[in-house]
Write a structure and sequence with these properties.
The chain is elongated, with a radius of gyration of 30 Å. Helix 2 runs antiparallel to helix 10 (about 325-345). It is built from ten helices and ten strands. The longest helix has about 35 residues, at about 200-235. The protein has a domain at about 175-345. A four-stranded antiparallel sheet has the order 3-4-10-9. With about 350 residues, it is an alpha+beta fold. Bound molecules: zinc ion (2 copies). One zinc ion binds next to loops.
Length: about 350
């Protein structure tokens, strides 16, 4: 007697695909936000891990997916993580175990009671069959990925680590969407400062402002670093030389708008502040500069800071930072970085 190992259908949509082959669908459970982890198949890709929300982006006939970090192109199923693959294998093993148990029970003639009596009137043996408890399969561990963005071109809702470049579904360059999303976080914090001043006092509000300025500068620096790295890599520069350039030459140069302008011009021939009026660049530079007394002295005025503050006051400069100044600095930063991004990368096609 031959019988099928699996019954078709069921929660895993089992289908018989050949004499002794079956297909089975194991859905990877999404996180609490409805996103599922994905992993770049390229071993050397870092960070390589990201998440996508099922049902957004390209929902039909998707033949290729892309890594947001390195733009590696492969079938969507190739982006399954090791952890998820193990999960699917465990589910499969569990289902097979249940199915084999059933066949075993049926072929030996155990009824629904799981008991069977053999023998005659002189000797009889009673056997019983007890099915093992199917093992619980733990859902795969997923990383917490906080940077979320929706692709403006295909609508894919996804989350990445750091500053990614490519949309995982349509493969378009959406770097500036990630950058804008980063600045948006600061805007939201700035918008909440008045409430926090009322609820928690001026000291907390002052620290909030300092942190927002610090973040504004950090994003500017990280974005320029990411853009120059990409530019140099695409020009054939080695990873090692790029690292060396940043650690030995550029160092914290991208924390200063004017030095950034010179570095970018020198390395790429592109203009960071194309079409900017001089006073806008000055404004950005002096706003960024206001973080030095803050970060270097942890907000505590030392003699040197006091001297420079007095001097600034004498010259009519304001040393304190305001919410409006940070908002303006964010606006100018996005304008400069978007312009530079299109000058540096938009001439190239994103499709091979
Ligand atoms: Zn990758
Ligand atoms: Zn897209």
């Amino acid at each position: 007697m031959t019988r099928d190992l699996f019954q078709e259908g069921g929660p895993y949509n089992i289908r018989k695909t050949g004499q002794s082959s079956y297909s089975m669908e194991v859905r990877i459970p999404p996180d609490e936000h409805g996103r599922t982890g994905r992993e770049c198949p390229q071993d050397e890709c870092a960070p390589g891990y990201f998440k996508v929300k099922n049902g957004t982006g390209i929902t039909e006939g998707q033949t290729f997916a892309y890594c947001p970090y390195c733009r590696f192109e492969a079938e969507p199923s190739d982006f399954t993580s090791e952890e998820q693959l193990n999960y699917a294998k465990k589910i499969l093993a569990r289902e097979a175990g249940i199915a084999i148990g059933k066949i075993f029970k049926d072929s030996l003639g155990f009824g629904s009671t799981g008991k069977k009596k053999i023998g005659g009137s002189f000797l009889s043996v009673e056997m019983s069959y007890k099915e093992g408890q199917p093992r619980h399969v733990h859902v795969p561990f997923e990383e917490e990925v906080l940077r979320t963005v929706v692709c403006p071109r295909c609508g894919l809702d996804h989350a990445v680590f750091g500053l990614a470049v490519w949309c995982s579904d349509c493969g378009e360059d959406i770097f500036m969407e990630h950058v804008k999303a980063e600045y948006e976080v600061i805007r939201v914090m700035l918008a909440d400062i008045d409430r926090r001043r009322n609820d928690l006092g001026p000291r907390i509000a002052a620290r909030d402002l300092e942190n927002c300025l610090e973040d504004t500068v950090s994003i500017f620096e990280a974005v320029l670093k990411a853009m120059l790295t990409r530019y140099l890599k695409e020009s054939g520069e080695t990873e090692e030389n790029i690292q060396k350039l940043f650690s030995a030459r550029i160092r914290n140069g991208f924390q200063s708008p004017k030095r950034s302008m010179a570095i970018i011009k020198n390395r790429t021939q592109a203009e960071l502040f194309e079409g900017f009026l001089e006073d806008k660049i000055e404004f950005l530079a002096s706003t960024f500069d206001k973080r030095h007394p803050i970060t270097h002295n942890l907000g505590v005025m030392d003699k040197k800071y006091l001297a420079s503050a007095i001097e600034a006051e004498r010259e009519g400069r304001e040393v304190r930072i305001t919410k409006e100044e940070i908002e303006e600095a964010i606006k100018l930063s996005i304008e400069a970085l978007s312009g530079l991004h299109s000058r540096m990368f938009c001439n190239q096609t994103t499709h091979e």
